[in-house]
């Protein structure tokens, strides 16, 4: 046996079988995390009391539909970015373009009377900060699930993948938060939800590559 053979045998002695990645399986697992979290929120009685009346309004359809679309797109971008040859840059740019389109669409669903209110009243900073904080907290389970997937995979651009994971987790948290958010102004949603998403994405970009030693 040569020294090279001995080295290979030594390096491979502790290796264990690794389950092959499957994007559909991982996407399904992430969706399950979101469904369970939303179910727990509903079971806790946190749904806004007027949801039955609001669910079919243009504003609520825009709010839930936009966030569901963004959560789906960013989740797929994040999972796909974990494969070695993939880069999330183009996917994230597409997601940002989609977010811009949803903002424009929000201009057309402002409830009657809301547009004439003072800006400070429409933004309601105290409630807005609470909403941004709630989105951050609700993003944590999805962030943890994505961190596990990221650690098991082999992203060649860990910082970009971390940012993609942060955006996906934040979009998921914002979507789940629509269950209990009582505010009905698109301007409020755009400003404070964007703040919560930015906070989660920034934290993921900083934390995931360092703490998980990719």
Automatic annotation (TrEMBL):
Transmembrane segments: 27-47, 59-79, 91-114, 126-149, 161-180, 186-208
Keywords from the named record: Membrane, Transmembrane, Transmembrane helix
Record-given protein name: DUF1109 domain-containing protein
Organism of this sequence: Sphingomonas morindae
């Amino acid at each position: 046996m040569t020294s090279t053979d001995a080295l290979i045998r030594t390096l491979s002695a502790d290796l264990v079988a690794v389950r092959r990645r499957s994007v559909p399986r991982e996407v399904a697992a992430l969706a399950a995390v979101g469904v369970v979290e939303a179910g727990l929120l509903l079971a806790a009685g946190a749904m806004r009391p007027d949801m039955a009346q609001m669910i079919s309004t243009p504003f609520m359809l825009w709010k839930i539909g936009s966030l569901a679309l963004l959560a789906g797109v960013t989740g797929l971008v994040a999972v796909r970015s974990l494969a070695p040859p993939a880069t999330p840059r183009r996917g994230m740019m597409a997601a940002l373009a989609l977010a811009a389109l949803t903002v424009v669409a929000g201009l057309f669903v402002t409830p009657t009377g809301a547009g004439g209110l003072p800006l400070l009243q429409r933004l309601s900073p105290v409630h807005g900060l609470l909403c941004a904080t709630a989105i951050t907290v609700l993003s944590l389970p999805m962030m943890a699930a994505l961190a596990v997937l990221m650690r098991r995979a082999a992203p060649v651009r860990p910082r970009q993948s971390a940012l993609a994971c942060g955006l996906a987790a934040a979009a998921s948290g914002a979507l789940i938060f629509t269950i209990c958010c009582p505010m009905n102004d698109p301007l409020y949603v755009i400003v404070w939800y964007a703040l919560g998403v930015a906070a989660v994405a920034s934290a993921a970009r900083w934390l995931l590559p360092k703490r998980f030693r990719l």
